[in-house]
């Protein structure tokens, strides 16, 4: 019923736009000069509407409409990389806020001196996975380090991962014998009982080596359920990527996306520039990008990949 309602809503958008176009054409054929201003305004609005509808066709992947799970990991660069990971966390949270998406921090590991080692965020909203999908990969920061007493220029890296959060629709069989489940005391907020009791959960999937953890829920059961949800999403995405890679290799197009291949560079010194290396889309407004203005980069990648 949910799928039917969603599809019905989608069809209605196209039908109503088509009807408006036909009505405008009929008015234009009347040749009434008094309607020219109204027609010009209607044509401008219809052009914007058609452009929006055209763009939704780029979000035609099987899971593009679904919620997403976003993970950020500090890479090479020490404390600068951990600070960079936290900057990316803020950037994506601000982007979600701009789009009206609901976010929940599932797990967060702070750095010893500053920043974060990693964070896992649940993002809920229509097209969340479709929009965030282009963000997968290594993000590179070049700046004058605030943690270097000599104030030298440093390069830091962080890895962004994104999986579709289709929850109940994921058909992944997990053998309980393949799991190592550990509990520990939460280091985050959640009340005094969180600090005293072992409510946080870490699950290791032995065949793949995937490790997921959750400590932001109030009970051990809730954290375990959330961790299993993330594990299923990661295993699902792993299998999906494997199938895509096999198809791409058959076509001779597959390129390994390892940690050294950054998808985007954020340069704050000696000049200001954010550039996506896949599409060559760039902007000098680094402050706006780091404040969550990412739609242009996402749309450029979706058009480029199509």
- The proportion of strand residues reads 15-25%
CATH architecture title of the largest domain: 2-Layer Sandwich
Low-confidence blocks of residues: 189-194, 253-258
Largest sheet: 8 strands, mixed
Q: End-to-end distance, in Å?
A: 30 Å
Supply the helix-strand structural class.
alpha+beta
- Global morphology: globular
Total count of helical runs of at least 4 residues: 8
SSE string, helices as H and strands as E: HHEHEEHEEEHEEHEEEHH
Structural domain count? 3
The count of β-strands is: 11
CATH topology of the largest domain: Alpha-Beta Plaits
Q: Kindly report the spatial arrangement of strands forming the biggest sheet.
A: 2-3-1-5-4-9-10-11
Into which percent range does the helicity of residues fall?
Answer: 40-55%
